[in-house]
Amino acid sequence: MSARRLAGRLLAVTLVVAALLFLFRTITRNADQLRAFDWSVDPGLLLLSLAAHVLVLAWGVVVWHRILVHTTHQRIGLLGLERISFLSSIARYIPGKIWQFVAAAQLAGRAGIAPAAILTSLALQLGFTLLAAAVVSIATVPLPDAWPMGRAATVVLATGAAVLLSHPTVIRFALGVLPRALHQDVIAWTGAWRESVVLLTLSIVSWLLYGGAFHLFVSSLVELPGSALLPLTGVNALSFLAGYLVFIAPAGLGARELAMTALLAPIVPSYVAAVVAILARLWTIAAELVGAAIVLVLGREKTGATD
User: Fold this and answer.
1) Which string of b and e fits 146-180 if b means at least 16 CB within 10 Å?
2) Cα 119–Cα 124–Cα 130 angle in degrees, nearest 5
3) Cα–Cα distance between 112 and 89 in angstroms, integer?
4) CA distance 136 to 236
5) How far apart are the first and last CA of the chain?
6) How far apart are alpha carbons 221 and 68 in whole angstroms?
């Protein structure tokens, strides 16, 4: 291992440990308040939120399928893509953001799909996901309405910027960077601007659905006001965005939890927010594992039926 790579991994570990220690200190320093807090744990609602989370992840693969089919102009099985997505998601916890791409490309090769097509479509999906997360965050995150132009005008501006960044010229430029970053070939994007806007819209829908699942999850732990749905949608989207922008943190570990703790502060006490943020990570891992188990079972059943 090169000295540069070793230093990067040590820095990633340091940041993750520091973030988790901060959360742990927040929790332990308020241990008495946590014990006295009126938790309202609802196992049934928790299981419902987990099922909703799995469905949201599966819906994300439907969006990816549209991108991949448009990229390759071939018919590709949706179940196979679900399998690739859920199994490769485990690689997100390796430091760096490229390993999920690498794992997906390897799984795709075994399924007879060109790795370049997988990498291209995943990169495009990630781009639309991040743009959509930014738009949804600005529209719904629970921050004081001290926007320079007002929240409504800011949302319009952010949406316009996202649409402009979805222009085919911008997409082709971004894809041109990937071969140097991933040391893999990619496929040129030939989609029209209208298709890009459709994909951006579908990605926004994904975050709204994800916000609903997250609302169910938080509601299964604490009492929430009826108006909490949209703010929690923004908390979830912006926390993801913050975690992803901290490139060296595997799956945004630590950074996502810190952001979520801060963003939940207007809704629940900070010490409760820290617990919820940590449990939200476990909730996400559980949804990924459940989804992986489901696609593996379905894949075996399909194989058995064709034998």
Assistant:
1) eeeeebeeebeebbeebbebbeeeebeeebeebee
2) 125
3) 20
4) 10
5) 45
6) 38
Residue 20 lies inside a defined structural domain of this protein = no
Q: What is the pLDDT of residue 307?
A: 45
Domain that holds residue 46: 42-301
d(CA 49, CA 55): 10
Query: For 72-111, how does the pLDDT look when each residue is reduced to its tens digit (9 = 90+)?
Result: 766 777 777 888 887 777 766 665 556 666 677 777 766 6
Amino acid at 226: G
In a domain, 283, yes or no: yes
Pick from 31-35, 164-168, 206-210, 212-216: least confident: 31-35
Strands annotated E in 149-224 = none
Give the number of domains in the chain: 1
How far apart, in whole angstroms, are the C-alpha atoms of residue 20 and residue 258? 8
Provide, rounded to the nearest whole percent, the portion of the chain with pLDDT above 90.
36
Residue 32 lies in a domain: no
Residue with the two structure tokens 């988790």: 20
Domain annotation covers residue 9? no
Given this model, what pLDDT does residue 96 score? 55
Is the Cβ–Cβ distance between 216 and 102 less than 8 Å? no
Distance CA 168, CA 127 (A): 12
